[in-house]
Amino acid sequence: MSYPGESERTTQRQIGALPFRKGADGSFSVLLVTSRESRRWVIPKGWPMKGRKPFEAAAREAYEEAGVIGHIGKRPLGFFIYEKRLKNRDFVLCQVKVFPLEVRKQLKRWPEQNEREQRWFTPPDAADAVAEAGLAAIIRAALKRDDFKPG
């Protein structure tokens, strides 16, 4: 996949968490949140954090953006690329490394609860809800490989 002007642009690295839970019937659900600007469905993600390993930063983003705490996998499920719109209206190309997060607790209050919506989806519905084809592929592949368990 190529983007106009891609050769002049560098890719910024981000980390993200794919929050999931297993129901009593053995089925999985995936938690998505809306982005603050465009309100599209995304996973909790952000910039790497100094002093934290990538999976630790992903767990922190899940807490801040979705109010969930759980067991984060140390190995990424994969990565996807998207265009992030900056406040000055420019775009930056981002590569997001995605870590599985088995949700153990959903908080009543968290830092960004008034800035985003959140919703639990079946994995196929979550894959259909996200705009980024690479993220949809990660969700679908994780379901097929039974990756919905922290590694």
UniProtKB/TrEMBL annotation:
Pfam families, per the entry:
NUDIX (PF00293)
**InterPro entries from the entry?**
DDP-like_NUDIX, NUDIX_hydrolase-like_dom_sf, NUDIX_hydrolase_dom
* CDD domains hit by this protein: NUDIX_DIPP2_like_Nudt4
Q: Which residues form the Nudix hydrolase domain?
A: 10-143
Q: Write down any Gene Ontology CC term.
A: cytoplasm
UniProt GO molecular function: metal ion binding; pyrophosphatase activity
Q: Which keywords does UniProt give here?
A: Hydrolase, Magnesium, Metal-binding
**Cofactor(s) essential for the protein:** Mg(2+)
Protein name per its UniProtKB record: Nudix hydrolase domain-containing protein
